[in-house]
Design a protein that fits this description.
There is one protein chain. The protein has about 575 residues and is an alpha/beta fold. The chain is about 50% helix and about 15% strand. The protein is built from 22 helices and 14 strands. The strands form three sheets. A six-stranded mixed beta sheet has the order 6-7-14-13-9-8, sandwiched between helices. Strands 2-1-3-4-5 form a five-stranded parallel beta sheet. Strand 4, helix 5 and strand 5 form a beta-alpha-beta unit. Helix 12 runs parallel beside helix 14. The chain is globular, with a radius of gyration of 26 Å. About 5% of the residues have low confidence.
Length: about 575
């Protein structure tokens, strides 16, 4: 199960099914969907000479060109198509929609095709954002699709978009799963029920009206059961780029990076096009230095081979290698600059000190020492306000029910140190969203004497790196399921919508299974790393795992989404 390849199949069809010179029209959402999995050079190779937005009414009339439209089946995009067909600018139109098209929409298009320019209407199920081969998301943001209604409930628009997107993922992967959901999550249950209804209602698309295909499980989880992972500083290359520089649909805005060429406004991160990123995505910051040195050395050795051009054959060899040479040069420059900028920000923001405390709060039970360390961090003028708040939030989550809880005192200290009142309020916001009363699991292993002992024993084991002690709860859950551990526990915690479904795992573990994990409330890049690495370890069991979410969170986006709903 490769999410990027699933999306690329449809991109290849969109660009390649229609021969000859053509224009590609996209809408607001299909533009980033396409740009994540395709390149301008690929589109040019398929004779796509112009890419534009269908909402743009200032396009020139070019009746000699064919027009391929790829849009979401929304009211806004359908209206834009209707307006286009009423005054066609191109000779022939091939209309592809990213999801299931209602009969009424087909009729609307037919009624307005008075010039009879539409040659084809098809459904191509690329209605999701394929970030990496292991990770997809729905692109929900508070500005476009607010996730929450009131409290722990769906905003109707976000629910509809998520059901459509997950349905498209299943159609693209050709899967009909057995659906399981976290028992304590009304949002996970609602999403599962709506998706089950969609699969039954569109039975011909999903392979009949029977039960799941028997080889695929969809596990719908709720972010509230693990609020810790998105709050931590993660030290893998991709996660650091997203947290510190911001990765939006695979692109990084370089306007704030001083050492980059002024004419280069942004850079693209693509596993297909960038071998260094593909190999280094999950490397931690400590290993990146050695990796980039090897990359630079490789570049130097390849450039030196072009020093002597003494014959026609030498010139021919150089010209043939030149595109790859330029591409390699650009990638070397890009990553040397990005890693240099990350190093500068880590030092400027004192993130090593912040991360060490975060990891201690996430992984170890030592109340007295933690209170003292958090107080010292708040009093340090060199630490940014948002990092102080994150540490207080982690403290409040871990020690919410502990005797001598000092959360109120720490909030007063935040205010006294000049932290904005709205930021201080985020401590209570997160507790309302994911406090001990809301969570299903004992993620800190400190809620009874047995789990406290287990947590203390784990802390005595030592760790290779104090900055990477934490393991996402999602990763631990999948490890146990795949290995066949605590089957009764997971059967209880992850009930199936199908009462006759088999348990999620047997004592011997999982074999020949596809697992799609979807996180309501947003996944993280650290969870993607856990999924990818587990998938590699269990490949011999023929178990394939992909991760999805309503969005992909950094600590800032996670807190920002909660601030819109769970106000104190």
């Amino acid at each position: 199960m490769d999410i990027v390849k699933a999306a690329q199949y449809y991109t290849n069809r969109i660009a390649g099914d229609v021969s000859g010179m053509k224009v590609l029209l996209l809408d607001r959402e299909t533009t980033p969907i396409i740009s994540l999995v395709s390149t301008q050079s690929f589109l040019l190779s398929k004779e796509v000479y112009l890419v534009d937005r269908i909402e743009n009414r200032q396009r020139d009339v070019m009746r000699h060109l064919k027009c391929v439209c790829f849009v979401r089946p929304t009211d806004a995009s359908m209206q834009a198509l209707v307006d286009e067909l009423r005054s066609p600018r191109y000779g022939d139109y091939y209309i592809y929609v990213s999801n299931i098209l209602k009969k009424s929409m087909v009729e609307l298009l037919a009624e307005n095709d008075e010039s009879e320019v539409v040659r084809e209407v098809q459904e191509f199920y690329a209605d999701f954002y394929a970030a990496t081969p292991h990770l997809f998301h729905m692109g929900l943001t508070p500005a476009t699709h607010p996730l929450f209604g009131e409290g722990h409930s769906w905003n109707p628009g976000a629910l509809s978009r998520t059901v459509q997107g997950l349905g498209a993922v299943l159609l693209a992967l050709k899967r009909r799963p057995n659906i399981r959901y976290e028992r304590n999550s009304a949002m996970a249950l609602k999403l599962g029920q709506e998706l089950e209804y969609l699969m039954a209602h569109e039975g011909s698309l999903f392979g009949g009206r029977g039960q799941g295909d028997g080889q695929t499980q969809l596990l719908i989880l709720d972010r509230k059961n693990d609020p810790v992972t998105p709050l931590l500083t993660h030290w893998t290359y991709h996660a650091m780029l997203d947290e510190l520089l911001g990765v939006v649909h695979g692109r990084i805005d370089l306007s704030q990076v001083a050492d980059f060429r002024a004419e280069v406004k942004e850079v693209m991160l693509s596993q297909d096009q960038d071998s260094f990123f593909r190999q280094s995505q999950f490397l931690n910051f400590g290993d990146l230095g050695a990796s980039i040195k090897e990359f630079v050395d490789s570049y130097q050795s390849k450039t030196q081979s072009h020093d002597k051009i003494e014959s026609i054959s030498d010139m021919k060899r150089f010209v043939e290698a030149y595109p790859e040479f330029r591409k390699l040069s650009g990638n070397v420059s890009k990553h040397v600059t990005l890693i240099g900028e990350l190093s500068r920000l880590v030092s400027q923001r004192h993130l090593l000190a912040v991360s060490e405390l975060e990891q201690s709060l996430a992984c170890n039970e030592q109340h007295g020492a933690d209170v003292k360390a958090v107080r010292a961090l708040i009093g340090d003028a060199k630490i940014r306000a948002e990092n102080k708040v994150r540490c207080v939030v982690l403290y409040a989550l871990r020690y919410e029910r502990a005797p001598g809880n000092a959360t109120d005192e720490l909030k007063r200290q935040l205010s006294a140190s000049g932290v904005d009142a709205d930021m201080v309020a985020m401590v209570d916001v997160v507790l309302r969203y994911a406090g001990a009363r809301e969570r299903q699991s004992d993620i800190f292993q400190n809620e009874n004497i047995f789990s406290r002992g287990k947590n203390m024993f784990r802390g005595l084991q030592g760790t290779e790196n104090v900055y990477t002690q934490h393991t996402p709860a999602l990763g631990e859950m999948l490890e146990q399921l795949v290995r066949g551990r605590q089957g009764a526990h997971w059967q209880e915690r992850l009930p199936s919508l199908d009462p006759n479904a088999r348990p999620p795992s047997s004592e011997s573990g999982m074999f020949n299974q596809d697992i799609i994990v979807f996180v309501v409330g947003g996944a993280t890049l650290d969870e993607e790393r856990a999924v990818a690495q587990l998938g590699a370890r269990v490949a011999a069991q023929n178990v394939r795992i992909v991760l999805g979410g309503t969005s992909v969170h950094t600590s800032q986006s996670f807190l920002g989404e909660l601030a819109t709903t769970f106000f104190p």
